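FOLDING PROBLEM:
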Amino acid sequence: MSRVMYCTGDALIAMGHQVEYLFSEHWQVSNSIYMRRLAVPLQIPALIYSLAQKGKHYDIVEIHEPLAAPYCFNRKINQNLPPVVVFSHGLEKRNQLTELAYRRQKYLPVSLPLRFLRITVLQAMYALQHSDHVICLNSEDAAYLQQIGVAKNRITQADNGVESQFLLAGKALAQANLSRLGILFLGTWVLRKGILDLVPAISQVMQRHPALQFTIAGCGFDTDTILADFTEDIRSRIQVIPKLSSNEELIEIYRQHSILVLPSYFEGQPLTMLEAAAMGLAIVTTNICGMADFIENGINGFTVPVGNFEALAEYLDRLVSDEKLARSFGETARQKVQAYTWENAAYKIVSAYKKTIKADTNCFD
């Protein structure tokens, strides 16, 4: 999320706008995640108001969805607070509903908070319904916002972007026309990323293709913890990279692989997918959220139903067996992603800001 903020912020600054970030150093709270979820949202309106008292005026305040409720409430009381745009990187309520459905599909335990109450979901729902404007990242989220009563003219569906480094590296790689074979999973090793489907699907494909290499990068866990989920006969062909620290490192990892697998049950619009497309990887992912908006099944990648590891294994096997098909998908995705720049993303965000400011001004006409 912070990468998205900085990349869009840089593009906005290049367009002549002034952007300031308020991050964790501004909040006086404990290190407890639970306490931060409760305390940080309450401090935001007070901080903005105190800055205004010191002469710091903002035309727009953009707040991440789960943190915005207290500010939205305070703005209804104090119209002098700047209008607020809520930015959702994946609607909290839809995340809850999809996790609940996925757990039931997989016969996993369901906690009471997941079934009935989550503080972040309650905060998010209030913010979405009482903000001046909402920016989301996929068509399913945009449709859901209208279902819960957010007016269409208060919704902007934006896209994430790809940094020029990836676009240039992908172009050079396409021109080099090098042969490469390997499957990459890039993301945290958590349930939402579809690891329960990934493990059996990858295991089947690797057993069918004895030379196939598989990389798990940016997973957040050590090698032994990750490899424990796989059978011993394929562990030697699995590379685990717990943390990534630079775009150069990311680009090198993409360069070594031909296929990206992303079987998440919920996302906003994953940067991983767009970066992999920029690097010419064939993508196998689920037919939901921002993945479904970008991947046209059978044209620039494959999409599978959530939780269907058999289909995931089948499509991965097809791409591993058919290098020409994988190259074709990768090149088609690479061509499509050229339009997904941070500059284009910033234009949509600025349009949402201007619409919000205009609507706020008209309230006082």
The first strand starts at residue 61 and ends at 64. The chain has two domains: 2-161+342-362, 164-339.
